[in-house]
Design a protein that fits this description.
Layout lengths: L10 H34 L2 H9 L21 H6 L12 E6 L5 H14 L8 E5 L5 H10 L4 E5 L13 H12 L10 H12 L12 E4 L5 E2 L7 H7 L4 E3 L2 E3 L8 H11 L10 H4 L10 E3 L4 E4 H6 L1 H13 L1 H4 L4 H12 L5 E3 L5 E3 L2 E3 L6 H5 L20 H9 L7
Parallel strand pairs: 1-2, 1-4, 2-3, 6-10
Antiparallel strand pairs: 4-9, 5-11, 6-9, 7-8, 11-12
The structure holds guanosine-5'-triphosphate, 2-acetamido-2-deoxy-beta-D-glucopyranose (NAG) and magnesium ion (MG).
The site of 2-acetamido-2-deoxy-beta-D-glucopyranose (NAG) has 5 residues, from loops.
Length: 415
């Protein structure tokens, strides 16, 4: 098995550790609060009436004011749509939002949907595709479909695209998870379901039947925030500029989760150099032509991508198969961000990768906020603090400089 590097070997790991301790405090406060709320529920109204009120979407529900946070307090779409005449848009892309979630993620999913609907989609009406490894509950379906006036679709992926494959040596995998959990600052070190999720987003999301009729997807995770209006259509931007992959934040992956990912990847690309695009963005991933890895990744909890690229790229699919066979999704904790990062940077023409630097996006405390001296800030009626942005406060962890360096390399004429 791979050897793990020492404690806090990377700045990102140190930062994550800080967040972790903050999270524990927040978790403790939240648990106390939940206990208080729960005891109130049981004492005053009984659990069954609580569940009923959760499911009730009607506005004459007697418990509207003290209702729990998920769907008994649906987004007030009507007020947004009728106060002022809403713009209409003559063009629309062939695109959908994509959310992978557990039923228990409902509250966070609703939060994210409100962000996306309020800042962008209420006038655009792009549909939502929800995926799960279990059947979605009636509650999940009713609540999420109440947040949008666009179409919603719900699907379950085939079991073999989710669970750990049989060829993985479970004893070796268990040992590796235990070893990783002894290193401080590594999230989900022992989680198998997290590994399933990373593998799914690496090799299977784009193969889903529900996505077959779409060209672009926009990934949305629970509990994210969009802090400016999105006043143009990023899907149409992708289409009009022939972009295949768009990101907001780029950060380095931790060493501990991916000790052999780079070498395993180079093994594949050295054997199959025909898949390397002549105008790739290799410089984002490596400063020395492939010898060592920058660890830079596009932070995949936000991504807008061209499904036809993922579905149609032989290189991408063969690369995934190579990683799958090496077993690192389970023997280590390879994420979909480092995997996409390497694949996108090496397989695509770098001109087809786009940094959406005008989109204000936040996930677990890391955020991108446009510079207030740019038109995007004022036009977007932003509510974010530029000082807290990746490129200001966390500049030393941002991979933006590596991306810019990749784009600055003169193109070679491949005609
Ligand atoms: N159906 C299903 N979805 C999952 C599972 N684990 C994670 N997800 C979803 O996969 C996405 C990524 O998972 P997260 O736990 O947010 O991973 P992360 O963004 O690396 O970690 P955080 O920093 O905690 O947000 C989210 O949309 C989750 O809802 C799972 O076991 N089943
Ligand atoms: C949308 O894109 C998919 C994938 O490219 C394609 O199969 C489908 O025909 C497209 N639909 C429309 C209406 O263009
Ligand atoms: Mg997340």
């Amino acid at each position: 098995m791979a050897s793990y590097s020492p404690l806090f070997s990377s700045p990102a790991a140190r930062w994550k550790q800080l967040v972790l301790s903050k999270r524990i405090t927040i978790a403790a406060i939240f648990t106390l609060f939940s206990l208080l709320v729960l005891s109130e529920v049981f004492l005053e109204r009984g659990i069954s009436s609580r569940i009923l009120s959760t499911l009730s979407l009607s506005s004459n529900s007697p418990s509207l004011n003290d209702s729990p946070l998920s769907c008994s307090n649906p987004f007030d779409v009507s007020s947004l749509q009728h106060n002022t005449p809403r713009p209409t848009y003559p063009r629309k892309a062939n695109a959908t939002f994509l959310t992978l979630a557990r039923n228990s993620d409902l509250a966070g999913v609703i939060h994210s949907m409100k962000q996306v609907e309020g800042r962008f989609n209420r006038d655009r009406q792009y549909p939502w595709v929800f995926l799960n490894d279990e059947p979605f509950t009636e509650e999940f379906i009713r609540c999420t479909s109440a947040v949008t006036s666009a179409k919603t679709y719900y699907g379950q992926m085939p079991r073999e695209q989710w669970v750990q494959p049989d060829f993985i040596d479970e004893e070796k995998a268990t040992k590796a998870r235990k070893a990783l959990s002894r290193i401080k600052g590594v999230f989900y070190a022992e989680s198998v379901s997290y590994r399933n999720m990373c593998r799914f987003y690496s090799g299977f999301f784009y193969k889903q039947a529900l996505l077959r009729d779409f060209k672009y997807y926009w990934r949305v995770e629970p509990d994210i925030n969009y802090r400016c209006e999105i006043e143009y259509d990023p899907f149409l931007y992708m289409e009009d500029n022939n972009k295949a992959y768009g990101f907001t934040i780029s950060v380095p992956e931790q060493k501990e989760t991916t000790p052999t990912l780079w070498d395993t990847s180079m093994e594949f690309f050295n054997k199959n150099p025909q898949y390397l695009h002549p105008n790739n963005a290799m410089r984002f991933a490596s400063k020395d032509g492939g010898k060592t890895w920058t660890r830079c990744t596009y932070w995949t909890n936000f991504e807008i991508g061209d499904l036809d690229f993922f579905r149609g790229s032989e290189g991408y699919n063969k690369y995934f198969e190579h990683l799958e066979a090496a077993g690192g999704f389970y023997y280590e904790r390879w994420g979909d961000a480092p995997m996409h990062g390497i694949a996108i940077s090496l397989l695509l023409d770098r001109d087809r990768i786009h940094h959406f630097d005008d989109i204000a996006y936040e996930h677990t405390g890391w955020e991108q906020c446009p510079n207030p001296s740019t038109p995007a800030y004022e036009r977007g009626r932003c509510s974010c603090d530029y000082g807290n942005s990746m490129d200001v406060k966390w500049k030393r962890y941002s991979c933006k400089a590596d991306f810019n360096a990749a784009l600055a390399i003169p193109r070679i004429n491949s005609e």
